[in-house]
Specification:
mainly alpha, 9 helices
């Protein structure tokens, strides 16, 4: 069978074969979150989750800024481990952190559109540390149509606007 001409397809005289195109483009129907919404949600999570953890580590665990400065690697481990744990629990329970909830965002698997499992969320949050450390992982969302960060690409997840 000959391929239909583009002109005929555009004018509606021939219907394209939709079996192959719908399976490839099905994940593009998700309502992707904008970069500004993701940044606002990140800032909200930073103040609601990260700041209390940092305060506790700085002053209760390390004995002040001087103690943190003397043992920075251990201090960051004490900060990031509870942060990843708390974010993973929030995302596993509802697909949202407090910042995502404030802006009606949700993390879903890109292929299925469903909430990811516990191990996938944990992997996503651990790779988010890598993404933040390189900064390239966070800058990617400003140049991609689907607004995915490095950790979203590695884990196969996407942040969508909840409807």
């Amino acid at each position: 069978m000959a391929k239909p001409r583009i002109r005929d397809v555009k004018q509606g005289r021939v219907v394209k074969n939709e079996t192959s195109s719908t399976s490839k483009k099905e994940h593009h129907k998700l309502p992707y979150a904008s970069a500004s919404e993701k940044v606002k949600a990140f800032l909200t999570d930073s103040f609601m989750l990260l700041m209390p953890i940092m305060y506790a580590v700085f002053y209760l665990v390390m004995g002040g800024r001087e103690g943190f400065a003397a043992h920075k690697a251990l201090g960051w481990l004490y900060i990031l481990l509870p942060l990843v744990t708390i974010q993973t629990l929030f995302m596993f329970k509802s697909g949202q952190t407090p910042g995502y909830r404030a802006y009606d965002l949700e993390v879903v698997e890109e292929k299925t559109g469903t909430r990811p499992g516990l191990l996938l969320i944990l992997f996503r949050n651990l790779t988010a540390i890598l993404s933040a450390a390189t900064l390239i992982g966070w800058v990617l969302m400003f140049f991609r149509k689907d607004r995915k960060n490095l950790h979203d690409m590695l884990s196969g997840t996407v942040v969508i606007k909840k409807s």
